[in-house]
Design a protein that fits this description.
This protein is an alpha+beta fold. It contains four helices and ten strands, in the order αβββαβββββββαα.
């Protein structure tokens, strides 16, 4: 019985870890290099911030100077950098925007990538990837973008993934410089250049949110463990003695009809040559 208790305890621990991982199914841009700390919990940098409600952030494509356009304080956004941007590209340059999705969840409405060239310039006027691109899963998920050819100066590139089923948005902004004298960019700009394809495993099924999915999974696990425990107790109480009696009876029959006759056989000797 103690062994069964240990088994149930370990099963609950494993299921809990799976559920917590499901809760961390978020996304964040890694290239161009994002603003320091943006999109990450200041108290736990490995945790990615989900912005809610989704309606507040999904269509927030206003001017760069408007609050919350990059998530604001709820997204740990430090605001535009006061030092020259680390990321520099030429006007009209093509490069890969790269992001990580540790664990996937239903994609729609999907990823959107845009850029703003000043506090008075709208992200909605410079959409590089319209909303709907699949977020994918894993690290170094990529999407090629091309900057407008006729604009230059300091700008902000915004990566956004909203999921209706998940009930929130994930937003990352990167300060970039658009300069004709910048090094020539290629479609493989960024880290881990050899991975040119987006490998996605997307479940487009509907639902009432990740919370309902987690609740259902947890409920199923509890039911299975509970039924197993009750079944074992019932079997042990009503059937164990009968099972043991059958085993003893079988051993007795083997002893009577096989073992004793074998012992009564005359010794076996080899014939003389």
């Amino acid at each position: 019985m103690k062994l069964l208790h240990i088994y149930c305890f370990l099963l609950l621990i494993c299921s809990s870890s799976i559920i917590f991982q499901t809760c961390n199914s978020h996304g964040i841009m890694t290239f161009p290099t994002p603003r320091s700390g943006i999109g990450r919990d200041p108290n736990n940098p490995s945790s990615i911030i989900k912005l809610q409600p989704i309606q507040t952030y999904r269509n927030n494509d206003g001017q760069n100077g408007i609050s919350l356009v990059c998530g604001g304080a709820p997204n740990a956004d430090p605001g535009k950098s006061t030092v020259p941007p680390e990321n520099a590209f030429r006007p009209g340059a093509s490069f890969n925007v790269i992001w990580d999705v540790p664990i996937p969840h239903p994609n729609p409405p999907g990823v959107k990538i845009s850029v703003s060239y000043s506090d008075l310039d709208s992200f909605g006027q410079n959409i590089l990837v319209p909303e709907g691109f699949e977020a994918g899963t894993g690290t170094n998920v990529k999407k090629a973008v091309t900057l407008p050819a006729g604009k230059q100066g300091n700008a902000v590139l915004k990566w956004q993934w909203c999921s209706t089923t998940d009930g929130g948005c994930y937003v990352t902004c990167a300060d970039i410089k658009i300069d004709p004298s910048a090094p020539v960019s290629t479609i493989n700009s960024g880290s881990n250049n050899n991975n040119n394809a987006v490998q996605a495993t997307i479940d487009d099924g509907g639902g009432d949110g990740a919370g309902l999915t987690i609740f259902i999974v947890f409920l199923i696990i509890i039911i299975v463990v509970g039924l197993g425990y009750v079944g074992f107790r019932y079997w042990s109480k009503l059937e164990r003695e009968k099972f043991e009696a059958n085993i003893r009876g079988s051993m007795y029959l083997i002893y009577i009809y096989i073992y004793i006759p074998v012992l009564s056989l005359p010794p076996f000797t080899l014939p003389n040559e």
